[in-house]
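Folds abound. Consider this:
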Amino acid sequence: MSKQQLRGLERGSIDPKAVPARVAFRRACILIGTAAMTSAGFYEMYEVLQVGGVTILEWMVLALFVLLFAWIAFSFMSTVAGFVVLLLRMKDPLGIDPEAPLPSIGGRSAMLLPTYNEDPHRIMARLRAMHESVELSGYGSRFDWFVLSDTTDPSIWIAEEKCFLRLRRESGADNIYYRHRRENTARKSGNIEDWVKRFGGGYDHMIILDADSLMTGDTIVRLASAMETHPSVALIQTLPVVVNAKTLFARLQQFSGRLYGPLIAAGIAWWHGSEGNYWGHNAIIRVRAFAQDAGLPDLKGRKPFGGHILSHDFVEAALMRRGGWDIRMAPTLGGSFEECPPSLLDFAARDRRWCQGNLQHLAVLPARGLHWVSRLHLLTGIGSYLTAPLWLLFLVFGILISLQAQFVRPEYFPKGFSLFPNWPAQDPILAAWVFVGTMGLLVVPKLLAYVLLETQRRNRRQFGGGGLVLVGLVIETFLSGLIAPVMMIFQSGAIAEILLGRDAGWQVQRREGGEVPARELMRQYAWPTLIGLAMAASAYAVSLPLLLWMAPVIVGLLLCVPIARLSSRVSHSGLFRTPEETAPPPVLVRAEEFAKPTGGAAMSPLLELANDRQLLENHLANLPGEERRNRGQIDPHLAVARAKIEDAETFDEVLGYLTARETLAVLNSRAMLTTVCEIPRVSVTYPSR
């Protein structure tokens, strides 16, 4: 962005109005409770280590323990708050009641679907289902729909246009639009920024979707109504629920998110108040607030820390709050869905990009004028990844202390005069209680979610019954405990890569399938396995009890390959059932119906255009005007493509000569594409490049 926006980031202008007393009280409860539990954890851990004096290594372990324990305690307090909010059925501060009659709306809203090399058939199916749902609400005329493509694969680009034309034809809708960017500057945030500059002035609100997003018409209308009722609100974030999970790994995420997620969301909404956060999708935003206050700067320096901000959502929320707008969450609204990566490797690949984006927030933290809660959001995003290497260091230092005690001769008499020896030791009984207490902070929120479910008759029945949920909870806790050490290694590796200057790039997220070839599994999970072996050998060298003590971590690392292989397979088990599976909402059913394969062999994108005059005319109409280039400035891919096309005698030769990048250059050139389509051809189907 411009230097002016960067100066604005430094200057700041947050509305200094006082925080309501009730919100201040809620935040005090969370922070004091976190501090109290952390202090108790520090004291107990110090008592474990102080027997015989605390060494340097033990001080380091104590410091790491306090940081990690504070992180767990903070999450625990938010979850307990969410449990109380949902148990007492406290009223939503925005007045959104999902059970009330549908409110009326008068403003104009835009539904924005950014996409990058995604399956066009599936994204158009989801879009059509949402469009149909909104039309059934009676307020379809208040919404326009935009597919904002940043796709760089030529075959997918033309398939998007083909699916778009089919969607318009079959639905009869004239309020669905498609736009493809030639240069995908700043990725998704740049895509949204481009739309705001070109079209935003005609709309009051915009709802941002992801390629896997799905929302009911009821939810969309209620969000628009809430924005009209509360003119000081810039953003309302919903709680997306995972659906369509097929593999065991995805079903674990779907089950845990559906069971525990409402408590977490209700808790953070309770104490965040008007300083909420933005998760990047399935949220409604006031266009004027976004245009005025959410401009993102380019961070100084080189990638991965510099350049465009990858995790833009947290920053955009912080900037709009700084501008005096409220950022809210609607945790109990419902009707908001997303999908989950099918395997742990796919999850880790997405997590790598998020990790880099969150670490970029280190440069935003010092910005002037940000609300302290907004800074806390940025810190928690950073901390969610830094806790992984901190946990790894905690384990390593713990092993080193044990090895030191086993193989290094202790100094029984310190320097100076002493009548009595100094016996180096730790209190194993107290250590066990500290471990139990820490595990309790992790497990109790899950039990609270189960207790809450038992009070919700309809919800419990749709989960499959209390007994099935309890079995699923136990198995999910066990499997998540085995997966957690593997994610610790992956995230620690991601931190190391970023510190070494490696950029995550912009990879396409895999959403279908899940099974990974055995060779790829061995390659990707080599480091977790080797680290597990090293930990096991070090622990066994000290004592068998230490090996048993560290077994939860070591077993997860040693078994990561079979666990990954098993969890990436399609699961047909009745376990981990969710309400959306038992009673799927109509929009979900319709999306699956529209997504059924239509058949037809894949063609070269140029052949698709040459064979379909309407598709070609639509493509040419969507292309921007030819840019004037400076003298001597040429597109090398287009120049090479032009030479190959001039040498070709038939259309088939053109298809055989052009690479994917050259084809993309031709598709972006109105003149060159017209020339290609006039070359003599035969109707032969070619595999897409």
Notes: The first helix runs from residue 3 to 11. The two ends are 35 Å apart (CA to CA). Residues 1-17, 419-423 have pLDDT under 50 and may be disordered. The first strand starts at residue 109 and ends at 115.
